Amino acid sequence: xxxxxxxxxxxxxxxxAELVLLCYTLHHILTHKTYKRGSRGLWxxxxxxxxxxxxxxxxxxxxxxxx
Length: 67
Prior knowledge:
Elements: H1 4-31, H2 40-49, H3 54-63
């Protein structure tokens, strides 16, 4: 059986990257007023619900307005 302590060297950087990406995405959503698709509330919900990399990646691919 796999011990969690064996996975920690892999999980800690992954969790840190996920949190950094989530914080950066939320900061970007809250500081910009226009989006290609959807509204601010929609993108905040998508990013928080899909916070395991999928939500932030969707925002940067589909929602971020090119400045």
